[in-house]
Amino acid sequence: MFVLICYDVNVQSDDGRRRLRKLARQCENHGIRVQNSVFECVLDPAEWELLKSKLTKTINPDKDSLRFYYLGKKYDTKIEHVGAKTVVKVEGTLIL
Q: Mutual orientation of helices 45-58 and 14-28 as an angle, nearest 10°?
């Protein structure tokens, strides 16, 4: 499944900055950063449930927010990119 994960973390405190870094690391381990707080992830249902659980436990729901957009299997037809960043195929081969 293709999931777009977006978050907004209140970073006015050291704890908020720690939550932000932790969320970013968790998302980087499972997807590609397409904007500062936006990640594209292709996950199987078990991976998704585990990641979603980690992310929701990391945030402070009184100060932070998470959004999950489920784009399904035919997500290529639902995404349009304009601008400077290089587009990376989420399911393509990645060479580091």
A: 170
